Amino acid sequence: MTPACLLIFSSLLTRTLCVIAPQVKDFKPGDNKIITGPFWHEVFTESYEYPEEDISTTTSEPLPFFTDDASTNNVTAQLGSRVHLHCRVHDLGEKTISWVRRKGEELHLLSVGRHTYSADSRYSLAFEHPNDWRLLIQYVSERDEGYYECQISTHPPLVRRVHLSVVVPKVEIIDERGQPLQDKFYKEGSIIELRCIVSEVPQPAKQVNWKHGGRLLNYDTKRGGVSVKTEATSNGAFSRLYIANANRNDSGNYTCSLADVTASAVAVHVLRGENPLAMQRGNSSGVHPSMVLILSLIS
Fold first, then answer.
1. Rounded distance, CA 213 to CA 210, Å?
2. Which N-terminal stretch is annotated as signal sequence (predicted)?
3. What is the b/e burial string over 27-36, where b = at least 16 CB atoms within 10 angstroms of the residue's CB?
4. Where are the alpha helices (DSSP H) in the chain?
5. What is the torsion angle, in degrees rounded to the nearest 10, for the CA atoms of residue 67, residue 122, residue 211 and residue 274?
6. Going residue by residue through the chain (299 aa), what tens digit of pLDDT does each one get?
């Protein structure tokens, strides 16, 4: 195309654009809807002002977490006592706490929220403000020993495992040498002295009771001359029973017990003079009967 033809074409195109532009809807001179540039790139575009998007920044709910330290993961309880298994949770929100008992691969539901679902009435949920979802077990037995899990209903669940150990206290009536005693012989008019040692007690020793048959001797005022002295030891208690001026009515079975948990018994024989046959019956000390009689008479 010659320069003259190019000039004529450019002039015609410019006039065409000037005629078309005012026909564009809402067109105004100087409107930015026309993007200026080389004539072969002239285009009509609509410019829109978009409203600012309402971008709401949602803060995710914080995950709950356990606040108990590792020292509470292992709990020791005495047979027959009551124990709390602790589960302190921070930022629980709308989540739910459950307690389950684990036996191997089996899980047994005990509680959900504040509701108990165990058929065993010894189990209950004892919530303590502000955030301790405690599991209460009353009258602990040996079969309660094992693992318990506190679970938070997240996905997947958060789990805290607690192991419960059950200690069975040991109660023995012993002789002067500390050996277990099954029979004890006394001369009429002497002082009966029985010794009882309680061990394997992780908690402070409970009441040590002495009984003659079914009669409680700790607070006996009818018989008179009865005294019970009990001292706490590092892992239990040491108790002594004294009965002054023994008579035939004081013969029988004597029991030393730690509350209603466990007990030990001894057969006491109050003799009027020598009675070798009675001495031989039930003697388990390994000492010749005549020697036991001599020792009891001079004690």
1. 10
2. 1-18
3. eeeeeeebee
4. 3-20, 276-280, 289-298
5. -100
6. 555 555 444 554 445 444 444 444 554 444 444 334 443 333 334 444 445 545 445 567 789 999 999 999 999 998 989 999 999 999 999 999 999 999 988 999 999 999 999 999 999 999 999 999 999 999 999 999 999 999 999 999 999 999 999 999 999 999 988 899 999 999 999 999 999 999 988 766 668 999 999 999 998 878 889 999 999 998 899 999 999 999 999 999 999 999 888 899 999 999 987 653 445 444 444 444 444 443 444 44
């003079």: which residue's tokens? 273
Decide the pairing of beta strands 158-167 and 208-212: unpaired
Residue 74's DSSP bridge partners are 163
Residue 239 token pair: 């108790």
